[in-house]
Amino acid sequence: MTGRRRRRVSAVRLRALAYVLLLAIGPLAIFEAGLRVFDVRPPWSSLFGAFFETRLFVPGIVDGEPGFRTNPAYLGVFQDMGFRADKGRRFRIMVAGGSFVHGWALPNPSFQAFPAQLGRRLETVMEGRPVEVLNCGGLGWGSSRIAPLVRELVRHQPDVLLVFAANNEFWESSLYHALVERPVSAAAAVRRLESSRTFALLGFLLSGVNSRWIGFWSDWTGRNTHTDDREYAAILDRYRRNLGDIVAEARRARVRLVLGTVPANLKCDPDTADSSCLGAARHGCGCSRPALARFDALVADAGAAYARRDFGTALARFRDAGAIDPGYSWVYYQEGRCLEGLGRWDEAKEAYWRHLDVCRRIVVRDFSAVVRELAAREGVPLVDAARFLESASPHGIPGYDWFADDAHLNLRGQRKLAGWLFEQRGRLLGGAPGSQNTVYMYGRELDPTTMSSAASSRMTATGRSHQAR
């Protein structure tokens, strides 16, 4: 074959390829152009996009009137709910957070979770004004996605926005890194696709795709990887920044924001499936083989001593083991059990918290400290649920009295938290009707000189009752 003929054949092939591409892409381009000309915006937001923009609620009909409903792409992650666009006289409260807010582990979270229970209680004191409490807690959602969610929620004119964000920061961090922070990330590629309305429409039609992506990415990114000190500092900094963004967004929208701390089950055994710390304990000390053998021997001796209720000896052995490898979180939980056996409750509580702080899988004390510091600095109302449940627990150590597992409240705990939040309605509602009766907040009291003597007495009695429990 001559050179001229080769060039002719190549030209024919290129033209054929161009025709094929035109036939394949042309209809999609025309369809995309039509969607843009008629401004059709499919109500879909992927897992990737949720780190930048959420579309939790999409237009729909609610009680025969225009309103908003949960985006089908989010069903299974958020509760199915709806509300009218024109709220009229309704007092609208939106509660944002993760599975702690959602009510995961409850048979009927839309009715049993604390936001729903709080709403029913508030109805009794709002002087005939309807109360609407929307549970905007998403399974697996941490502050990196709650912050964009708040930007959406404030557009729906809530009278109060209550935010509990803390129990998904470690899990979400691996997801955030894989989807957002990597130079060539999955998010970068998919965000380009998401700019196409054709792609968004396809995602909406496949409305279960978002839930499947969550399961896929939770496995792919290594949900239960160890968090070293450098990564922990980055997570804490991002958490602080996200909460700051939430405060700023609420202020711009002139929405009353209330921040809450997230409690933890200090007595959740890390050797059970209830615990996010299951399998977390690992030797990261670079210890020699003899040192590790000594560690194992000490743990075995401690276990034997605990079994015969010799808690003092067991505690000493566990502490010796912890001295060999201070990063082995499991040891601190065992120390807590021994200290409980000895009746040294404050030390036991510290040991249990030390276990969670070193494990770094779920809630840690630093998260609550960030919330308290930010609320104090910015003048944002605070409901310190973590301290409240500690005050309501024997010896200040929350356990299975209130929790179903390490981080999710059982029905009794949901009822307890809802009742306490109802008592704090003065703090929650500001100057709204029904808010004047309660002025006590755990760990803080308002100035009694601004109240009647009866109200001051109620405040003192409420405070004492909490301290006594």
How would you concisely characterize the structure shown here?
With 469 residues, the protein is α/β, with parallel strands linked by helices.
Largest sheet: 5 strands, parallel
Summed over residues and divided by their number, the pLDDT gives a mean of: 82
Can you tell me the residue ranges where pLDDT is under 50 for at least 5 consecutive residues? Answer: 207-224, 437-469
Oligomer: single chain
Give me the count of strands: 10
How big a fraction of the residues is strand? 5-15%
Helix content: 40-55%
Task: Describe the protein.
The protein is an alpha/beta fold and 469 residues long. Helix content is 53%, strand content 10%. It has 19 helices and 10 strands. The strands form 3 sheets. A 5-stranded parallel β-sheet has the order 5-4-6-7-8, with helices on both faces. Strands 1-2-3 form a 3-stranded antiparallel β-sheet, with no helix packed on it. Strand 1 and strand 2 form a beta hairpin. The radius of gyration is 27 Å and the shape is flat.
